[in-house]
Description:
Elements: H1 2-13, H2 20-64
Amino acid sequence: xxxxxxxxxxQIVMITDDxxxxxxxxxxxxxxxxxxxxxxxxxxxxAFVAGKRDELQRLISNYQQ
Length: 65
């Protein structure tokens, strides 16, 4: 499905067959970059929240003593 979509775009923009593999590689590189950025943002957010939770638990336990 993705490949047919890109081929349709290439026909509309009039990309030649010689340039199509480079264009396809570029599109997949962009998609991979966006995906990796999303994964890293999610991972860093989870780590930040977990760190703050641990810090609050430590403060509460010190306050209760």
